[in-house]
Design goal:
A hairpin with a 6-residue loop joins strand 18 (about 280-285) and strand 19 (about 290-295). The protein has a six-stranded mixed beta sheet, with no helix packed on it. It is globular. By secondary structure, it is mainly β. Among the domains are: about 160-295, Immunoglobulin-like (Sandwich); about 330-470, Immunoglobulin-like (Sandwich), CATH 2.60.40. It has five helices and 32 strands. The protein starts with a helix and ends with a strand. The protein binds copper (II) ion. Copper (II) ion binds near residues 399, 455 and 463.
């Protein structure tokens, strides 16, 4: 397993236009919404020549339709629930109005089968985002209820074109259908419900066309519910240029780049390979590097002979707030539980329970000794206040802590300054086992903001809390 702390430290410290309005100063209720119908469908997870796999999908495809909006523009989408269980949509990473955040039981009621819900919100930041179910997400996302959301800058990025790669994994049975092992406590107490079949953009590893001499923006999203990917492009020096939607000063990673569930990394890939050659999109998160797709160069002559201008930024991004670290509102977040975690007890339903009772209730994880109760926020911050959270992963498993409605910066990892502290802003942070991290953000967005592990079985198993901004 190459998911070492060293890797973490070194590695990172044609859309649907319907329902997407142009730059407007405020929400325009007249825009016709894009319909997102959540329902059973069949998807070519095994490839076009195999029988389709029964999935749950938005508008019949996995991923669902790619939504695009200009920065400052709005998304108007109507969720129609054609499933047999309640659902909702969360717009992952978008700093939107709290009522549109899609968290069932916190920002909205569940959308019952046959019912609908209108989402309408502004997109303040350009970048790579996604949307997914936020009810029984450990099952609904794993069955295919997700799609890509791209917010475009006014200035086009200085690249020749862009390629979006949505990475997922699936647990399939011998017949190629989705394995019905949802909610298994053994998975939740370990690394989550890991799949055994990887897809890129909803299909098996295949060829991604490339032309020699072109400069490409690669938007890579990890939409898996548990699997971490560690990505590199064979034979190329792809540079990291955006993390969780936020453009960063491009840098060449020393190793493969870890991308945890829910996280996004945009690379600038200069096609320096030879016409006609193939190079793997490599993943070495858990094992030796293996290709999960291939960049296949055409035989065309190179678009340009050399790249001599250095890798450009993918737009200038303002920090999503101003930090005042002199007197922050500070809190601790201790993550415990899971297999080999040594947790003996935790609060559940307001009472201290032993591990056996917790397991019976499906709560095998705790944050600050509370196994998923949501009666109190972790912190309650006045708008404008700087919030600092000291996170301790006191468990034997990695976790991705995801904060809704805000972007935070990682100040320290295991007590040492983090790469990009105060400059790199993200909505999810991957923490290695038995590690610590301090994050900070300015509480700019009023509401109740869910804060949880994006390994979705861990979230359901107790790794969830919320932060209130008044
Ligand atoms: Cu977790």
């Amino acid at each position: 397993m190459t998911l070492s702390r060293r890797t973490l430290l070194k590695g990172l410290g044609a859309g649907a236009l319907i329902g997407v309005a142009g730059c407007k100063a405020r929400i325009d209720a007249r825009t016709d919404p894009l319909i997102l119908n959540a329902a059973s469908a069949e998807a070519p997870l095994l490839g076009e020549i195999e029988a389709g796999t029964p999935v749950w999908a938005y508008n019949g495809s996995v991923p669902g339709p790619t939504l695009r909006a200009p920065r400052g523009g709005q998304i108007a989408a109507r969720l129609e629930n054609g499933l047999e269980q309640p659902t909702s949509i969360h717009w992952h990473g978008v700093r939107l109005a709290n009522a549109m955040d899609g968290v069932v039981g916190m920002t909205q009621d569940a959308v019952e089968p046959g019912a609908g819900f209108d989402y309408r919100f502004m997109c303040p930041d350009a970048g790579t985002y996604w949307y997914h179910s936020h009810n029984r997400s450990w099952e609904q996302v794993a069955r295919g209820l997700y799609g890509v959301l791209i917010v475009e800058d006014e200035e086009p990025a200085p690249v020749d074109r862009e390629i979006t790669l949505t990475l997922d994994d699936w647990r399939l049975d011998a017949g190629g259908a989705i394995h019905e092992s949802f909610g298994a406590l053994h998975d939740w107490a370990h690394g989550g419900r890991m799949g055994d079949w990887i897809t890129v953009n909803g299909g098996p590893p295949g060829d991604i066309a490339l032309r020699a001499g072109e400069r490409v923006r690669l938007r890579v999203l990890n939409v898996a519910t548990a699997r971490i990917f560690a990505i590199a492009v064979e034979g190329h020096a792809a540079q990291v240029a955006s993390i969780d939607g936020f453009a960063v000063a491009p840098f060449a990673p020393e190793e493969s780049v870890l991308i945890g569930p829910g996280q996004r990394v945009d690379f600038v890939l200069d096609a320096t390979g030879e016409p006609g050659a193939r190079y793997g999109l490599m993943d070495d998160a858990y094992d030796d590097a293996q290709p999960i797709s291939f960049f296949a160069y055409s035989d065309e002559p190179p678009l340009r002979d050399q790249f001599d201008d250095g890798v450009p930024r993918l737009g200038e991004r303002r920090a999503p707030g101003t930090l005042d670290l002199s007197e922050p509102l500070a809190g601790d977040l201790v993550m415990e539980g899971g297999a080999m975690g040594g947790m003996a007890q935790a609060m559940l339903g307001g009472e201290m329970k032993g591990m056996r009772e917790l397991a019976r209730a499906g709560r095998v994880w705790a944050l600050n000794g509370v196994a998923g109760d949501l009666d109190k926020p972790l912190l309650s911050a006045k708008r404008g206040r700087t919030v600092v959270v000291n996170m301790v992963n006191d468990s034997a498993w990695p976790h991705v802590m995801h904060l809704h409605g805000h972007h935070f910066t990682v100040l320290t990892i295991d007590g040492a300054p983090a790469h990009g502290a105060g400059e790199i802003w993200r909505d999810g942070h991957l923490m290695m086992p038995r590690s610590r991290a301090t994050i900070a953000f300015q509480a700019t967005n009023p509401g109740k903001w869910y804060f949880h592990c994006h390994m979705l079985g861990h979230q359901a198993g107790g790794m969830r809390t919320w932060i209130e901004v008044a």
